[in-house]
């Protein structure tokens, strides 16, 4: 199965990132705004400002203010058109409809949707000569490699030794909720497991997929002298990124 790494950046979650999700929850904390958002989602069609205002009993001007906040948060989209497709004479009113964004807020960050997406790919592509676990490791490695290749194409970093390579990795690790901490110039400890508590239920499978995913990312990004190794610590991710060989990080001054 071929996959578009940009389209699958967050697996099956299809969710806005954590910072935007928190902002969206904050936007919905206002009562009138939340009620209008619920009304529009249930309407099944584009809704005018007048209809939105009437649904909560506020003025059209105040409704417009709240609706624009919902648009800014990515929860609604606005356009000019006739509600229900009714053709009338005159200027078309501004109408609002929900986007397909999903709000997912988890502290610490969890990526169960990504794990589910990888497992689904494994089921759909499992070969006759491999077990289900082997298929899961393969799909995790492939997804990580695709993301690494896409990142390399975007940033065009040149040759990457351990220190610069880990710096390039940190953006993805942070975005996926790993909470990376630089223990040393060539070593990253990942303070959060995005797949907890599922990793605790099936550590061999989930931690193995996690290691394969991160190893694939390093390969796709073409980071030299770094590997993803299993190094479980209580309350943290089971994987650590560090030098490929003990006592030799494989880095030259040009690669830093």
Give descriptors for this structure.
256 residues; alpha+beta; 4-stranded antiparallel beta sheet; 3-stranded antiparallel beta sheet; 7 strands; elongated; disordered C terminus
Short synopsis of the structure:
This protein is α+β, with helices and mostly antiparallel strands. The protein contains 9 helices and 7 strands; from the N terminus they run ααβααββαααββααββ. It has helices at 18-27, 31-43, 49-56, 60-72, 112-125, 132-155, 162-175, 198-201, 203-221, and strands at residues 47-48, 76-80, 94-98, 180-184, 187-190, 226-230, 239-243.
Please explain how this structure is put together.
Helices cover 46% and strands 12% of the residues. The protein has helices at 18-27, 31-43, 49-56, 60-72, 112-125, 132-155, 162-175, 198-201, 203-221, and strands at residues 47-48, 76-80, 94-98, 180-184, 187-190, 226-230, 239-243. The chain is elongated. The relative contact order is 0.12. Mean pLDDT is 84; it is low at 1-16 and 247-256.
**Low-pLDDT stretches:** 1-16, 247-256
Going by helix content, strand content and strand pairing, the class is alpha+beta
Question: Biggest sheet, open or closed, and with what strands and sense?
Answer: 4 strands, antiparallel
| Strand runs, count | 7
Topology summary:
Layout: H1 18-27, H2 31-43, E1 47-48, H3 49-56, H4 60-72, E2 76-80, E3 94-98, H5 112-125, H6 132-155, H7 162-175, E4 180-184, E5 187-190, H8 198-201, H9 203-221, E6 226-230, E7 239-243
Antiparallel strand pairs: 1-3, 2-3, 4-5, 5-7, 6-7
């Amino acid at each position: 199965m071929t996959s578009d790494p940009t389209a699958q950046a967050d697996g099956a979650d299809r969710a806005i990132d954590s910072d935007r999700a928190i902002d969206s929850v904050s936007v919905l904390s206002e009562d009138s705004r939340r009620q209008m958002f619920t009304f529009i989602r249930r309407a099944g069609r584009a809704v005018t400002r007048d209809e939105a205002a009437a649904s909560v009993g506020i003025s059209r001007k105040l409704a417009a203010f709240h609706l624009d906040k919902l648009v800014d948060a990515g929860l609604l989209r606005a356009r000019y058109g006739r509600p229900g497709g009714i053709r009338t004479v005159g200027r078309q009113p501004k109408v609002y409809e929900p986007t397909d964004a999903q709000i997912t807020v988890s502290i610490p960050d969890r990526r169960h949707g990504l794990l589910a997406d990888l497992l689904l790919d494994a089921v759909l592509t499992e070969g006759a000569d491999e077990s289900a676990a082997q298929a899961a490791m393969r799909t995790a490695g492939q997804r990580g490699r695709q993301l690494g290749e896409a990142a390399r194409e975007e940033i065009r970093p040149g040759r990457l030794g351990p220190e610069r390579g880990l710096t390039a990795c940190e953006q993805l690790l942070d975005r996926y909720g790993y909470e990376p901490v630089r223990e040393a110039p060539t070593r990253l400890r990942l303070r959060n497991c995005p797949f907890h508590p599922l990793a605790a239920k099936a550590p061999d499978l989930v931690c193995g997929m996690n290691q394969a995913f991160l190893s694939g990312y390093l390969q796709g990004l073409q980071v030299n002298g770094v590997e993803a190794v299993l190094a479980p610590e209580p309350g943290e991710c089971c994987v650590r990124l560090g030098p490929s060989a003990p006592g030799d990080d494989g880095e030259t001054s040009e690669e830093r």
